């Protein structure tokens, strides 16, 4: 790498840093309306993101306090660019994460900053050994940062799928436990309380939330409807709807729960068979493109060598 290109790259980085410092000077930055009235509404505002879970003696506490407003502003800009706040809020609920859209956007920014920082480290090493063009390395850093930023969204989707699999795995057992409790003479609320206290897992936590909503004054039917809307799973929606209908119409609840548990287990078996069929088709790819060519090569290579010797 020529000294001119290296000097231009370092000068551009220095100029960008000085520009950021100048633009953030207090007398050049006009405060927004939110910043002017936030000191008077401190008790009514949203809690500081990530600050409440970090000890004040930690060095990261000061960093978050220092860059918290900038992170919120950047998260707001990112939300305006990407959009989909309602979809993100829905997926956070389905993943069981007690976070706001703003916190999720800040996490995306932090992931992007980590990716961009990793790209800078790789670029510095490449420049030190004399490899790569500065412009190409800068593009590489930007691509790595954007990939990491979007990777947080992909990871949220994976979190949703993992939690849904856990809920579906726990649902038949919970339904049978509720059926046993109801058949023993307990009421629906008491049966839900007993199962929630004696069980562990995602569905038990959801049942605890349903009971907390009923204790706060909500009816059990509406709390179950909220459970169905919150999870978004078809099987769990049928389970909650069946409970609600049984409570409203006086249907024998134990029979309904046993039937639902059987239906859920049968649906799980069908899904397992379908998954096995898909995996069987996918297993043909390495067999055809890897194992079969090697087998053919081993079968025909001795013959080809023998023909060559005879011909020679």
Describe the structure.
Pfam families: T2SSF (PF00482). There is one protein chain. The protein has 312 residues and is mostly helical. It has a domain of 103 residues: Up-down Bundle (Receptor-associated Protein), CATH 1.20.81. The protein is 80% helix and 0% strand. The protein is built from 11 helices and no strands. Helix 3 crosses helix 5 and helix 7 packs across helix 8. The longest helix has 59 residues. The radius of gyration is 30 Å and the shape is flat. The two termini are 54 Å apart. About 2% of the residues have low confidence.
End-to-end gap = 54 Å
Order of helical and strand elements: HHHHHHHHHHH
How many distinct beta strands?
0
Structural class: mainly alpha
Q: CATH topology of the domain at 166-268, which one?
A: Receptor-associated Protein
Strand percentage lies at: under 5%
How many helices in DSSP terms? Answer: 11
Let me know the largest β-sheet.
none
**What's the level 1 CATH class of the domain at 166-268?**
Mainly Alpha
Given the C-alpha coordinates, what overall shape results? flat
Low-confidence stretches: 49-54
Whole-angstrom Rg: 30 Å
Membrane topology: Multi-pass membrane protein
Organism: Kribbella speibonae
Domain Type II secretion system protein GspF: 176-298
InterPro entries: T2SS_GspF_dom
């Amino acid at each position: 790498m020529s000294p001119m290109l290296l000097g231009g790259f370092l000068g551009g980085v220095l100029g960008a840093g000085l520009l950021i410092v100048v633009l953030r000077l207090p007398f050049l930055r006009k405060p927004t309306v939110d910043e002017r009235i936030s000191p008077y509404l401190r008790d009514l505002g949203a809690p500081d993101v990530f600050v409440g879970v970090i000890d004040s003696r930690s060095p990261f506490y000061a960093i978050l306090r220092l860059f918290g407003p900038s992170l919120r502003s950047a998260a707001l800009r990112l939300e305006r660019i990407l959009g989909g706040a309602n979809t993100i809020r829905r997926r956070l609920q389905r993943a069981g994460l007690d976070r706001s859209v703003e916190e999720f956007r800040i996490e995306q920014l932090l992931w992007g900053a980590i990716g961009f920082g990793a790209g800078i480290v790789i670029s510095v090493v490449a420049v030190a050994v004399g490899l790569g063009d500065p412009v190409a390395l800068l593009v590489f850093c930007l691509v790595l940062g954007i990939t990491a930023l979007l990777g947080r969204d992909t990871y949220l989707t994976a979190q949703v799928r993992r939690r849904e699999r856990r809920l579906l795995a726990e649902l038949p057992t919970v339904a049978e436990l509720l059926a046993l409790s109801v058949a023993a003479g307990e009421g629906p609320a008491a049966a839900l309380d007993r199962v929630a206290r004696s069980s562990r897992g995602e569905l038990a936590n959801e049942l605890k939330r349903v009971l907390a909503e009923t204790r706060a004054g909500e009816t059990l039917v509406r709390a179950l409807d909220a459970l169905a809307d919150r999870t978004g799973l078809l099987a769990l929606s049928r389970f909650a709807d069946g409970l609600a209908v049984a409570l409203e119409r006086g249907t024998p609840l134990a029979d309904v729960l046993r039937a639902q548990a059987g239906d859920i287990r049968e649906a799980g078996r069908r899904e397992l068979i379908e998954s096995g069929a898909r995996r069987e088709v996918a297993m043909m790819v390495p067999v055809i493109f890897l194992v079969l060519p090697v087998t053919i090569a081993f079968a025909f290579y001795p013959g080809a060598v023998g023909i060559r010797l005879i011909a020679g």
